[in-house]
Specification:
The chain has 438 residues and is an alpha/beta fold. The chain has ten helices and 22 strands.
């Protein structure tokens, strides 16, 4: 794998109803089983190019996963907080804004820092975003050293669950209802924070997570290491107390994005990609065409992996979706082609994923009455291509479109007329285009 970190995290500037009953009544949206084929032909292996040009066939009736959203991380102890204008640029959905609908924040081990996360989280909520939280360490009094690392003391599991509850209550009292809280950020990459073994994670989920007052995310493996989450899926008691299987995709090959065991045993649970930067943290986020890698990475996460959410690391960073000056970067524009148009509650539907070499397409159904179709098409090739799209059983008469390429960011285009559910569009060289039916 590639280097996990070019910017080490630790030096980044520096009775009542049960919880299960309550969450069930709130209406969890589970991941739909992923089909083995895509509309228009048999699914290709990840990374395998198509050998012949084909039309993109969208089947709005063949539903896949419900999308929860796209977003990023804010960590006010390691870097400075977003400004008021940057909060709106991140979570607003107007011109020049990212349209993010997920914010991830830390559960600081020091309670004195909890208030630092409130302002951005509250503004994200005001824009309709979902807020989740992840801890890097329990309070120091709950930790013990072992084998050169540190872990949560076994006699402190109950106290740690209460610590997570206390944070949830604090945020709620300050206007932020957390959607979910994680047990531990990257327990298997714990060079600089608290480590957990799969056995310890299963024990905590089984014996203590049921007392946590909001949804629970686990295990947030740094590289979607299945040997860390398999034991949870194979333990009914632990699985009952996990609501969201969270994963990070640092260096994870596309071929490892799918998870058959989750599809088999994770019904009723959600599947979130809760942290990544891609392809690195060393290059400028405006480097082109490298930024197109972000668009393909999101496509693979949603189509190959079936993830319901895609969450970047720092929202504002030289390699992130927002530059330090608060402007959307090229990487951010690639994210925005999804986040601005594929809104929470949209459902991914079956579509030809790789109709021709270097072209990747995905489709989503949502909007008023659930009849709007959003198609995101990525052309990583060096030449413009003509691509036909057919939306089955569609009464749409026109599509609007937005384009990002070397010289443009989310630029509105003239769109196209839809006839009999079909339209043809030019996909410029090295570009990403979003189409929305009307």
């Amino acid at each position: 794998m590639t280097s996990r970190e070019n910017e080490p995290r630790t030096t980044r500037h520096p009775g009542t109803p049960s919880r299960r009953t309550v969450l069930t009544t709130m209406g969890a949206l589970p991941v739909a089983a992923l089909a083995a084929t895509t509309a228009g032909g048999t699914a290709r292996a990840s990374g395998e190019p198509s050998t012949a040009q084909a039309g993109v066939v969208v089947n709005p009736s063949a539903t896949r996963q419900t999308i929860r959203g796209f977003g990023g991380m804010n960590h006010t102890v390691w870097i400075s907080d977003l400004t008021a204008a940057q909060r709106d640029a991140a979570f607003g959905n107007g011109d020049g804004q990212l349209g993010f609908s997920v914010l991830r924040i830390p559960v600081h081990e020091d309670r004195a820092n909890w208030s630092r996360e409130v302002a951005t989280a509250r503004r994200a909520i005001e824009h309709g975003a979902t807020v989740i939280a992840s801890p890097w360490n329990p309070p120091a009094s709950m930790i013990e050293n072992f084998g050169g690392g540190r872990r949560l003391r076994y006699d402190q599991y109950g106290a740690y669950a209460q610590h997570l509850n206390d944070f949830t209550t604090f945020m709620r009292d300050n206007g932020v209802n957390l959607y979910a809280v994680s047990v531990q950020n990257e327990p298997d990459y714990a060079h600089d924070w608290t480590a957990w073994t799969p056995t310890e994670m299963v024990r905590f989920l089984r014996e203590n997570a049921g007392s946590i007052s909001t949804r629970v995310i686990a295990p947030e493996s740094f590289q979607y290491v299945k040997s860390f989450s398999d034991p949870i899926l194979n333990d009914p008691s632990a699985l009952a107390n996990m609501d969201i299987l969270g994963a990070h995709l640092y260096g994870t090959p596309f071929g490892d994005f799918s998870y058959p065991l989750f599809q088999q045993k994770g019904q009723g649970k959600e599947l979130w990609m809760t942290e990544v930067y891609h392809p690195n943290s060393s290059d400028s986020a405006d480097l082109w065409p490298q930024a197109l890698d972000v668009g393909e990475h999101i496509h693979r996460a949603l189509v190959d992996g079936g993830f319901q959410a895609y969450v970047w690391w720092y929202i504002r960073r030289s390699y992130g979706p927002m530059r330090e000056d608060g402007q959307i970067s090229k990487r951010g524009a690639n994210m925005a082609h999804f986040s601005k148009f594929v809104r929470p509650g949209h459902v991914r539907v079956d579509a030809t994923a790789n109709p021709q070499a270097n072209v990747y397409t995905s489709a989503y159904r949502g909007g008023s009455g659930g009849s709007q179709i959003v198609i995101v098409a990525i052309n990583k090739g060096t030449g413009s291509v003509s691509q036909q799209f057919t939306i089955q059983n569609s009464t749409a008469s026109r599509v609007s479109s937005w384009l990002t390429d070397a010289s443009r960011n989310l630029a509105p285009q003239s769109g196209a007329t839809v006839s009999g559910g079909s339209f043809t569009a030019q996909l410029p060289a090295r570009s990403v285009t979003t189409f929305v039916t009307a």
